[in-house]
Hints:
The chain is α+β, with helices and mostly antiparallel strands.
Amino acid sequence: MKCSNLLSILFLAIFASCSTYETVEEQEELFESTSFLEMNSSEALLFDIINEHRISIGLNALQFDSAAYQVAQRHNAYMINANRISHEHFSDRASELNKKANAISVGENVARSFPTEKGVLQAWLNSPTHKATIESDYTHTGISITINPNGEPYFTQMFFSKM
Length: 163
C-alpha cells in the first residue's frame, strides 16, 4: 500500500468520528488541501535557490503549493517505476492542477542523477527550454526530489499560474 494511501486512511480513521464533513470525499478534499506535506531540506534548498535566481533577474518569487508538490511527488514515483525521466502524461498533471489549484498555465521541469540541488538548477539553466520554464511568469510551484532504490535522485518541479 502506498504511503499516501496509508496517510489518507490514518487521517480518515482519526478524524472520521469527530468530523463535521458529511462524506469521505469532503474529508479527502480537506486532507489534500491542508499542508500536511512539507518539503524536505533538499527540496526547500532547491526551492530557495530557484527563487533567488528568479529574484536576481527581476521576477517574482514562486509560492509553494501543496497540490503541485503532490503532483510532482507522484510524477517522480512514475519516473522511478519506468526507470527514466519523462514528460509523459503532462496534460493529466496540468488538468489536475487546473482542478485542484485553479491553474491556468502549467509547466514542469524534470531531471535525475544530479548529486546537488545547485547542480540540477545549473543544468536546467543551461537548457534553453528548462530555463524558459524557470523564468516564465508562473506564480506557484511544487518541487519533489525522490531517491530511487539505487540512491539516484529524481527531480520534478511543477509550475503554474492561477486564474
